[in-house]
## 1
Amino acid sequence: MKSVLFLALLLCLFLLLSFVSGPATPFSAWLNVVTLKGGLSGFISDHSSILELRVVHILLSCAVGFALATAGRTMQQLLQNPLADPHVTGLSAGSTSAVLLTLLFFPLLAQRLLFGWLPVLWVSAFIGAAGALSILNSLLFRLVRVWGAPALALAGLFLNASFSALLMVVFARLSPAGLTEVQSWTLGAIQPYGLNQALFLLPMLFIPSFYLMACERQLLLASFGQDFALTNGVNFIQLRGRILLCLMFLASAAVCAAGSIGFVGLLVPHLTRRWMLRCERPALRPIFNGLAGSFVLLCADLLSRTLTQPAELPVGVYTALLSFPFLVMVLLRHQKGAA
Amino acid sequence: MNKCGIAMDDCVLTVSSLNAWRSGRWLLRDISCDFPSGSVAVLAGRNGSGKTTFLRSLASLLLSSDGWRVTGVVRSAQRVAYLGQNLPLNEDMTVSEFFRLTSSGGDEWIQMHSRFAIGELASLQLSQLSGGQWQRIRLAQCLSNPAPLVLLDEPDSFLDRPWRGVLLDCLSQRAARGDVVVVALHRPEEAKSIATHWLGFESGSLMFCESGRDVYPNELLGRLFLVKRLDSPEPVD
């Protein structure tokens, strides 16, 4: 309980920090608010569009981090594979390719309404995720028998390679300006959405996450194998279907909001797993995991907006960078556990 | 086709012409047998003879989505207590968490808890358990399920002799209560005292089904394991 509260507090702190830093609202403007020069209301009316952008940006990065961490944890539990995550398995790449193909075949959309016509893009992202998942499913079925657990990484590698080849086709046909925008999006960058679009995406990110968190007990039973789950009253096939559907929702919404961000879904569950062993209430574990995902993505986002001002590197670059120390932490802890 | 010679109506578990097919081969062929309330059926047969598939088919675990084609009729209880082989370990849990997750509690559970001396293991992490300790935990979990049909796949593996004795005690107790116990044993000869049915499997077919207390089909079992003695490094006798 304590650790969850602590993490929530830390998250709030970073929310504030994230809110006041970045190129769009210089710190001096905030000093004016603090010293009440011109008053808070004056400031808000001056900067309302920036405020909206920033609030939406922060909310989206929290939601995407939460969703990715939850999706990664659930996939790892469901597939009994420590490598499972929407990015490694090619789910995100599938969604990304589908969105870009939609933009390619409807160029008007790309020029005038890039990410404006969100529901259409979301539908194509969903179809892409579903396609990737069904290929993965059929590939895995054969590969697991031959290769065992590493088959997932192999199938993911294959899918990611195929989708990035597809992306190259799209890149070849884009204008230079579109290219930079699309490239940063494929690496993972929170999109500058308005409030309306955020209101479309946020439920799509949070509702499936909450559902997956509610499946915790069934997933734990399933972690002892299909036979065990079935004889202990878990309808494994139905559970699997529902979870895969949720994963498709999460992956497609996350891709629409921020492109394909790697490493959050892979590493955060590993980090939180050992951390939460001492927690008496298993229900808190997925919550802690989700909050940790939000926290990591918020950190990465903060770095991406401040470290290289005025230019912004895609947030995916920083999650990859941050993942390295985290990976070392996980490895060290495993070593300690083994010794 | 009533090989055990018991009237159908008394039978809690009835299997008739059961076939199971997967990946181009038959794993079970034309199995028929019935077990009245209070039976302890011991399955014998060499590795890969179909014992596990038979138990899984009784527990309705052969799913068509996994490529299984199952024909025939299995009439059994809705609820079964099933213990499979090779349970993958979720290493993040402690023993007490495992029981909190899987057991509903109740008298049965308290009894099994003391029978298999779970108390001394309660605070351990699942990853710290030895094979035998983990097997005791699985048995306690499985046998605290009060279902009328108990299916156990090699419950005696990893167990020391004293714990094997406890296991057989528990099984005879279940049978005395009127439940049907079907069990594939690593050492079938140890179950002489409690078995009421002996089923011999070879290549997915039922070679014999002997019933009655104090009937130990010594010669039949010997034939089952010794016919191909050259292939089998450890004949049971």
## 2
Amino acid sequence: MPKREDIQSVLLLGSGPIVIGQACEFDYSGTQAVRALKEEGYRVILVNSNPATIMTDPDLADATYVEPLTPEWVERVIEAERPDALLPTMGGQVGLNVSLDLYDSGTLEKYGVELIGADARAIRLAEDREQFATAMRRIGLEVPHGGFAHSLEEALAVAEETSFPAIIRPSFTLGGTGGGIAYNRDEFEQAARTGLEASPIGEILIDKSVIGWKEYELEVMRDHADNVVIVCSIENFDAMGVHTGDSITVAPAMTLSDAEYQVMRDASIACIREIGVAAGGCNIQFAVNPQNGEMLVIEMNPRVSRSSALASKATGFPIARIGAKVAVGYRLDELPNAITRETPASFEPVLDYVVVKVPRFAFEKFPSADPILGVQMKAVGEVMAIGRTFKEAWMKGFGSLENGRAGWEYGATPGDDGLTADDDESLLAALRRPTADRAFQVKRALANGLSVEQVSEVSHIDPWFIEQLSELVTAESCYASLAEPTREATWEMKRLGFSDELLGKLRDETAAAVRERRWGWGMHPSYKMVDTCAGEFPAATPYLYSTYEEENESVRSDRRKVVVLGSGPNRIGQGVEFDYCCVSAAFALAEEGFETIMVNSNPETVSTDFDVSDKLYFEPLTLENVLEIVQLEQPEGVVVQMGGQTPLKLASKLHEMGVPILGTSVDAIDRAEDRERFEALARELEIDQPPNGLAVSEAQAIEVAQRIGYPVLVRPSYVLGGRAMEIVYDEESLEDYFERAIRASPEHPVLIDSFLEDAFEADVDAVADGEDVVVGGVMQHIEDAGIHSGDSACVVPPYLLRDEHVEQMRQRTRALAQALGVVGLINVQFAVKDGVVYVLEVNPRASRTVPYLSKATGNPLARLAARCMVGRRLKEFELKADDEFQGVAVKESVFPFDKLPGVDALLGPEMRSTGEVMGIADSFGLAMAKAQVAAGNPLPMSGRIVVTVHEQDKPNVTPIVRRFHELGFEIWATSGTARYLRARGIPARPVLKVHEGRPHIVDHLISGEIDLLINTPLGKHAQFDDYEIRRAAIQRGVPYTTTLSAASALCDAVIALRHRKLQVLSLQERARRGEMAEV
Amino acid sequence: MLEDGSAFPGRLAGAEGELALGEVVFNTSLAGYQEILTDPSYAGQIVTMTAPLIGNYGVTPEDDEAARPWVAGLVVRELSPKYSNWRAQTSLQEYLKEHGIACIEGVDTRRLTRHIRSEGAMRCGIGPEELGVDEILERVNQHPPMTGLDLTNVVTTREVYKVPAKGIARFRVAVYDFGVKRRSLGLLAGHGCSLTVYPSTTPAEVALDGAPDGVFLSNGPGDPAAVPGVMELIESLAAKEIPVFGICLGHQVVSRGFGAETFKLLYGHRGGNHPVHNLASRRVEITSQNHGFAVRSEGEGVPGAPDLRATHVNLNDGTLEGVRHRELPVFAVQYHPESAPGPHDSRYLFDEFVRLMGERRPA
């Protein structure tokens, strides 16, 4: 069965903004699918609202729509493009849900669009937990006993039978959103209510608790001829009860005998057949009772997933790529294994190494969030490490996390590891509860002398894993007590995965000393290939990992080559946008004739797809690992400016070791980041900066703040995403802050800037070749100063800035780039206050906004930058000026507040968004409307608005509220605000604040009587009232805004939508229009 | 130490004592080490597991394929000192020591695998360094090579024995034990066959005396060309027009019996992930494999055996994986449908055998 000739065009849906539970793994899958379908000659139409993705690069699909992923908007795309088929399985839960909605509403039938890969029946069968349970019982498989409920009463009836603890899972949600574990009736009622609300169909499943059972996943592929293969088995380190996205996971399964594995394999095959996924991949989760082997099917995802991305990287079997090909009719045996190229894809990969995935959390950003891990995912990213043994992979995994620890080492104090004390009793108590710190607590427990059995019993982690970890702890203490770190001992420790830095710490040496000694012995890692077949066949694709063994398989070619350093695990402040830049660089450098060598540790990314670069090293981004690769490969240079802070932090050390850095020099980077050197530069260029100072002690900080005047913006130097950045209004708050900030970054001083209240902020990204500078665009922030630029919505071209200020920003960007000698990308942040343009920050590297700006304007900034780094000149390219493009593009941020109960939704200078969307249209209003819809903030067309604002905001909010009133909205306001508004002719009905009696504002929110909330708070220390109000809005999905400028923009958006102008336009078509306009 | 002089250092971890000698091969199965160790087809071979961690889930008597392990030695990257599985009774290391099986761990097994892949399966020895390189190499080279070696007489049963059918006995099956695995017997018995298991050199007349409904030719070790009495056996069975089902060595015996030629593969097929194309159903089966020799084929034909046609082909390298007689109820596969260890995709072949017997004598 070769590919289908009866379809010519395929519509593909992405997964929208990065949120917890749905991250860039879908960019990886979608990008593969786009490329796979293009190869076959199909016209590929893509819809994704996330501009930071690689898949939305206009070079990839034939028609790229950066439009909201809602049925309404996707229908417009279908109407415009008339695709023959829709592949629903590549865009995560969002893609799947939208596809199903379009099917149910008859839209697909109306336009003659066929669902390929998985049909509506299969999707529903897999996704609806009740139907799924019935289907599984039909084929003799057990699901956790329990039942379904559509109301609290039904739920309580089910709970009678399952007893507690019980697990509550809402149907049709992603990342376990709205799920929970209940240990008693009170918790159960609470969890059931949350779950019923979270489920789009108001259905929850109540499971018998299988907490403590072992958890496994199998990745399955099937084609139209009913050939089925298992791509990978995955075993969770953490037992059932922890979301698999939050679990440390291991591939292949470690503690299953073949007999047991085959039972699971048979069950998976029966499952995919019964559910009827005709052609594509799916993920099936199992729970196994460690006492007697009883096996239950937990769930099935009839689509690509985070696990399938991991499985693809773990095995070298590209699930999304093969999934796309079988969806258009190919049989597995007609497709080649992409790595061996000689053998077919109809096989089951075997591994001769072990893969460990470690999740990365962001609890440091959300100190008030509940740290206990459960059925709702909380991790924001992950790393994967490959080693020849579990121990080696484990050590490499923890060494990749970039969480301030050198690897799997416990913190300086018990508090660092989430403990109050480190006596046996406290440790055992802590180990019972799964948290992000548990792996470190296990190490403390073993080091304290607790037995493998004790640790395993309380944590429910399989004793095999704990035994492995105890071997590491023993090895450590043996090495530490050696008289001399001999060559043999060092070799054994390197084989166990210990980094030079950790070895150094064990014996009070520097990592450099360990490295020097090791190099003196000629002891280097060898690189082995991920080849899908455990060495049985030759591999054509160099996908490599390091280990300490006898044979090195990585052969240096004689081509000109460049190493690109990736961005490591996703975290808040560093996500898919940097992967976009790295991948762009790899593509551009390949076109320039270089062999491209990628180094990264993040399995979710496109950059770690083995066919994106010529050579892929799946390695931790540490100095040690990068140096070894550079030494082996001898590249002409290393690209450090594309992957965010991760590679940038390595730049100066690499430079010191004589490694050539491509593009902007290390000295220029330092000149931009070093406060004093930069000030000198600013003076020289006559550029204004807000009054500022630097403090290395608390006393000095107070002195500086007094000199420049409150409010001040304080932050540690060299940080990412505004970590620990705060606006401080008085001395007391400064004292309070200072202790916390010092801990955030001990080696660096604290920066103190005058905070420009009510200023407009803007970001500029530009490319320079050392002489010429091309400005990519000026992006105006919609929120006022004080909100982190990564959290603020922004718009290009600027809509409220004066032309002269915009021009000044362009000029200053050029001047700075030239003065610094930037070769590559530069980002400058500006603020405008009282007619003065201030420079807030200069970053001579790729910024978060590069992909958004590139999509908005059509200039591929990252690719241009990469070309400049290898000597090309900007003059050689025909580039449009940044103000010549057509349309308006609004970027809106997306926050994880709904996933992290207990966290305040108030924005500030510390970045907290996980992702972004873009709305692009011909008017600001429509672009804003699209951005809001895409970000999941449905805009009310009419209804009731509640206004509760800070005293000083009342004058400014009045005209906005008046517009809403004149548009026919009913206005409610808290008493003070209501009085103020009524005095100005706006009929505002007063509502009670929380402490004023009931029903109060939160009651109204919860009862669903409010359609939009405008709430501005009182500084950083928000009142309890404000907090309650915002949490209620988030829980009930009521759109809200905490700034006035955003409220005004929302009003524009409502007006745009009221005119029902649901216009869609592909990026390619927009670019063509731009060209037409020029002619 | 390999016969070509390559050395692969590691730590001895199994039974202590003499130099273990055999043909070194690799198996790519992720799990199933115990079934592999006890599979009589591995007699005379030193098995390298490409999966790096071996022993994790211990050893359980139910997973034995024979009463004892048959491998000549085991090579692994890391032997797990601790096992964790509810079924397990003992650790792999204890089991190896108890049964006198040599094991070397800490080896760069991927390097060894790649070496075997390019240079072929060859003789090797596992022993303590103290013996000296020259001594080991000499003894490795004195060890008989696999080609031309009949090992069925080593592993076959000495006595005829019976295995009762599970449930109602519908058919009588004569089993030729060239090194039969317990799982094959169990599956046949599970299909309602009462089994009589004969030593591999039993004359056909003796086996046919028991009036069986079908004959099962088992898997086994060594060079098929060296197995005695093959022509006579197949001739007699063909004359009777009795259903015959062969697996692995049994497949080679059937093929040679009808005139086909066998040859040694460079490094064989050993693992649980080999895709086999069923030419009739056009489906792909993921199969369990363990063979160092293969039957020569040409398209759908089998040179030298015009009566046979190819039914299954390996998708990796195009080698023959199954044959069927064009007229008689005789079929055989090179791979292991009983799959212990390995996937269960091909268990339908046992149904097919039973169907053929049923056609001749409705139960």
